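Quarterly update from the structural biology core.
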Amino acid sequence: MLFLSTTSFLVFLILGVNYALFLALIVGILDAIPGIGATLAVLTITLLILASQGWVVAVKVVIACIILQQIQDNFVSPKVMGNALEISPVILFLVLFIGERVAGLLGVFLSIPIAGMIAAWLRAENLEKQQSLPEASQ
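Predicted structure, tokenized:
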């Protein structure tokens, strides 16, 4: 959310969009909605810019927002989620893919929390085994 707001603000300034800060805040707030938030943000911003500045600027903004969303979804989010959950980004992609195949959109939303719980459980099991090993050798 912070990444998309900040980069949108900078790109809007470069493109000469009026009220760049306000529009970037809208993008950031709507991005907080899981799944559809970023798309809803692009549609809202595009319509506002189309009405106020014309279609040329609106097309530039749509292209820029789609590129920023792709960067966020494919690079930033997996890195942040992987660090927070201590799971590899590759595993996160795999988990999202499996979740989507098993349960569709609901699976996408539930797959990362479930993977985080499984990873935490496995870490706790490994920690218990490591703590019990010195006691057995004494």
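The helical segments are 2-15, 20-31, 37-53, 55-85, 89-137.
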